[in-house]
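Working notes for the structural subgroup meeting. M.R. asked for a predicted model of this chain before we commit to crystallization trials. I am recording the input and output together here so anyone reviewing the notebook later can reproduce the run.

Input as submitted:
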Amino acid sequence: MDEAENYADFVKTLWEKACSEKIPPICRYFAFYHAFRLDMYPQMEQLFNIDEVAIFIEPLYLVDKVALGYEVDMNKMYKSLVKAMETIPNDWLACHLYLAWRRTIEAYDPETDTDTQIMDKIGERIRSDRDYACFEPIFIGLEAFRMMIKGYHKEAVHLFEKGTALARKHNDLLLVADGLYFLAENIKKEDESRAISLILEHNRIAEEVGYSWTLARSSLVLGRIMINRGEFNAAVEHLLEYSKVIESIGHPAAYSNYSLALAYNLVRDGNSAIRYLETIRERYGIKRYIALFHLQMAFAYMNIGEETLALTNLDTGKQHAIHSGFQSYMNLHQLLEGIFEKERGEFQSATNTLEAILTQLGAEDQLYKCLSLFHLADIEVETYSSESTKNSENWLGRFEKFIEHKDVPGFTAQAKILKAKLLQIQGEREKSQRLVDEVLEVAKSPSMRYLKEMISTHIHKISS
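Returned structure, recorded in token form:
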């Protein structure tokens, strides 16, 4: 390792030796494991085809196929894991293999949510045997991921912080980089500046170890931050950059394309959203993400006026969301259901649905809160009359108050559009025009070009 330029260079050298020299099977296992950690797909493929080591690495090889989105016989994979753990020389190596496999499968197969027996035993071993202490950062990271899936973001942040600190102690830079990425993902909605700071540190470590894919994650996180700020055009650009970079190194962009589809859907470009979602259809075997595919497809079909297809995908998405274990998918389903009801003119049903979701969202769900409040306020403005305001909820006021002290320029501009629309209805055309002019200035920014079309949609609708 001392002679290698960085960790990635070391892994390549180890892989070459494992393929060309006669070394023990366990050494080949570690060569595969290190390539597995860096997503070196061609190297993993070649090592897997060396018969004497295949039994140990087959679980990692198959779970990597799952991560890439290929259809994998899950029973075959689980059997290969059992066989490998029975065959591998000792308990420490069995623990090493299981945690490497579990870190990947946890993200893709909801069936693992109820598979706790082995994890409980590993936890006991970590607490009682110092030789197993090196596994603690991975173990805690898995606990953090489960909290994140369930929507317990505060608990997830605490555990990711703890796991990352332990990874630093063990000088596992890849785990540190992963921990920083997941921390940034979990706090980006509440503490944007810290999230960016964490991603910058993540980038520095990724560059140090030579991990190209994780280095590109900064564009992914920035794209998602831009979505939360209402800067949807900027989000598209960042997410396109991420897809381009990771596809160039052989890593599938399919999962980031969910975020890209959301950004396109938010600017009502359903055709572009569908185009990128179609790249995911080929990688349909990943159980946790099937729900997101259908929900984003539903949103896209709604945007292009294909109501039947939208409703079919919405219903399918709901069924898979229930099975996925992700609370955020259930929230997205309910949000889209409310938006669809609004689009069909079912304003009372839409209000009930959107109002209900607001009571379920946590402090970290800023995006869904902004979108729910926008549509509630739009219904309120659309159905405005001097009499109706007497007993109304004043959703526009609540939307304005919610974003008042937040750095969400896109949503601030959207609230001004609705205010201008209301003022125009009330006959206050000069005041309305002043607000429109303010938003048009904001719309000159490349990050929020969509606002110009939103103005024409909403203001034109009431002046015709």
